[in-house]
User: Fold TonB-dependent receptor-like beta-barrel domain-containing protein from Phenylobacterium glaciei.
Amino acid sequence: MENYGVTNFQGAMSGPITDHLQYRLSGYKLDQTKGYYENVNANMPTEGSVRDEYALEAQLQGQLGENAEFWVKYGTLHWDNRGGPGARSGYLADPYETGRQDPNFSVIYNPVHGYSPETGVNGIVPGSLQQFNGGTTKINPAIADSHKINTNTPIFVGLTDVHLLTTTFAYHAPTFDVKYIGGIQNYAYNTTGDLDNSNVKSYQIPCSLGRSAAPLACCSASARLPSTAVL
Assistant:
């Protein structure tokens, strides 16, 4: 059975610091070096649950005299992944939609039109298709093997600048309690992906018989989403 290079180390320790102060430390390191999906193009990594991530957490709780107590927790984590939320979790099972207009964004040309079997004005200029990494595949490889993909940009998920702080404080009066609960969190989420699920770099379309337009270039997309929340 294939292990895909998975390692998962976890640890925790806790105990008293003084009679009125206790601690807990925990963390994990999770790695997977090989993905479930293999790219048919040269020099491209595998994808699907490929992970390089860790998390660390520290907690303190204490008693302040006979009537007050507190608890505080700080955590951080980091992802450098081609797996996990936002990454590749499946494959394109159907044949490529090679119509000239993009099926998802009708106002732009379809990148996968470069694989069109049509000829003449309904196809592309013969010989104009350019693919990344010297690729030659024009038919979705997942139709024959669900573990094969044909893309030029691996989906990447990065989680950085993560700071998670939570705290509580309670004071017990003779007939009531006063309690404070609060926290703050911050993170930056980065993702890069291949929206067309193809390896097309560019192609030309015929404007009319004997004429052609400039090459249509295809590209990937990326996003960075910072977030801060305060309770």
Summary: Confidence is low (pLDDT under 50) at residues 219-223.
